[in-house]
Amino acid sequence: MSDGVSADRREVLKACAGAVVAGATLASAQPPAERKDEPKGKPGDFDFLAGEWKIKHRRLKNAQAGEWDEFEGEATCWTILGGVGSVEELRIPARNFSGMGLRLLDVEKRVWNDFWVNAKSGVLTTPGQTGAFEHGVGTFTADDKDGETPIKVKGVWDRITPTSCRWWQAVSRDGGVTWETNWSMDWARVK
Questions:
Q1: Which residues sit opposite 52 in a β-bridge?
Q2: Per-residue pLDDT for 151 more than 60?
Q3: Which of 26, 161, 7, 12 is nearest to 106 (CA)?
Q4: Which residues neighbour 76 within 8 Å (Cβ) at sequence distance 6 or greater?
Q5: pTM of the model
Q6: Domains along the chain?
């Protein structure tokens, strides 16, 4: 095919994502009790991501020295299950790296769960982050650890247009009072 992704490969990715849905949904972490003012996820929130993309990555290499690692990547994304799921095949050819993002909406709780599979391990993570979109910005959070130190992690989808978007990640080491951005990805639509 002219888009660089074979039909067989696309079908395998879709099948893998579909097969993971049942088990991944059962394994998802329970979000905190719902508040009236919390954003609500809905089918189709990730429709903007469907297509072919070129991505400029900027990842913090050394915070103390202010060193950043910049590199190029690409992705192919699909909306599945009537907008209740989104599959992302991320590729970084220069680093011989690929992985799959799988985002699933818990329809009852109206919250998105974000899963990741590194192609080198083939292991599906528990949801790294959960969240929803509000006013055109998707904010997803998780509690994690850096070694033994508890941290909060935030991933944000913003600057969403028909031809571009941005995802960035930040970490808080003080319970969410301050945040340090450690990764950004500027997406440009190829088709």
A1: 76
A2: yes
A3: 26
A4: 3, 5, 10, 51, 52, 53, 88, 89
A5: 0.79
A6: 7-189 (2.40.128.20)
DSSP 91-123: EEGGGTEEEEEEEEEETTTTEEEEEEEETTT-P
pLDDT > 90: what percent of the chain? 71
Tokens of 125: 């993570």
Antiparallel, parallel or unpaired: β 67-80 and 51-62: antiparallel
Q: Output the six-digit token pair for 37.
A: 């003012």
The backbone region for 29, taken as left when phi is positive above 0, alpha when psi lies in -120 to 50, beta otherwise, is beta
Instruction: Give the whole-angstrom CA distance, residue 75 versus residue 88.
Output: 7
Contacts of 15 (CB under 8 A, 6+ apart): none
- The three-point CA angle 81-84-86 to 5° equals 85
**Which pLDDT does position 35 carry in this prediction?**
53
Instruction: Give CA torsion, residues 184, 54, 48, 178, to 10 deg.
Output: 0
Residue with token string 């913003």: 158
The count of residues in the chain is 191
Read off the amino acid at residue 129.
Answer: Q
Residue type, 27: A
The tokens describing 3, both together, are 């888009």
What separation in angstroms does the CA of 67 have from each of 72, 124, 171, 182, 183? 17, 30, 16, 10, 12
Q: Report CA-CA distances (Å) from 10 to 3, 37, 82.
A: 11, 39, 17
Alpha-helical (H) ranges within the chain are: 7-27
